[in-house]
Amino acid sequence: MLADMGMTRMVGGDAPMGARMMLDAAPASTSAGTVTFVASNMGWRTHELVVMPLSDQAAAGRRVAGADGRVAEDDSLGEASSSCAAGSGEGIDAGAVGWVTLRLAPGRYELVCNLKNHYVNGMYEELTIR
Question: SUPFAM superfamilies this protein is in (predicted)?
């Protein structure tokens, strides 16, 4: 689920204490092999879901955003960023869904929304593939 939880930097200023965006993966772990991600945008902003590997030493939410408010996607394995369709696009509109199917090996992955300032406002989640 992708959602907005209050005012953020994207509408000016800093987010109020505790008000953030959210990305919730359910379940937080699954079996290796073919995995389909269905991203439901329950918020009022456009969002996306990008899947990236996490090394053993890395923690979700620790990537550094650039001046454009986004993290590097060089290691992206795929994304759901198209409204009512599979794969890449211009983002998932409010109230819509997007999806992507990937083949994932056992390990740790980070799911992120990489639109401007969404990651730094809390739109990331760790996923474990067993």
Answer: Cupredoxins
Which pLDDT band holds residue 117 (cuts at 50, 70, 90)? Answer: very high
Q: How many domains does the chain have?
A: 1
What pLDDT is stored for residue 3 in this prediction? 84
User: What single DSSP character describes residue 27?
Assistant: S
pTM across the whole model: 0.88
Report CA torsion sign: 111, 54, 103, 29: negative
95 phi-psi bin (left φ>0, alpha ψ -120 to 50, beta other):
left
User: Could you give the CA distance from residue 2 to residue 42 in angstroms, rounded to a whole number?
Assistant: 6
Please state, as a whole number, how many other Cβ atoms lie within 10 Å of the Cβ of residue 123: 28
**pLDDT tens profile 45-63:** 999 999 999 999 999 999 9
The burial class, CB within 10 Å (0-12 / 13-18 / 19+), for 18 is: exposed
Say if residue 92's pLDDT is above 80: yes
The whole domain housing 69 covers 2-129
**Angstrom distance (rounded) from CA 15 to CA 63:** 19
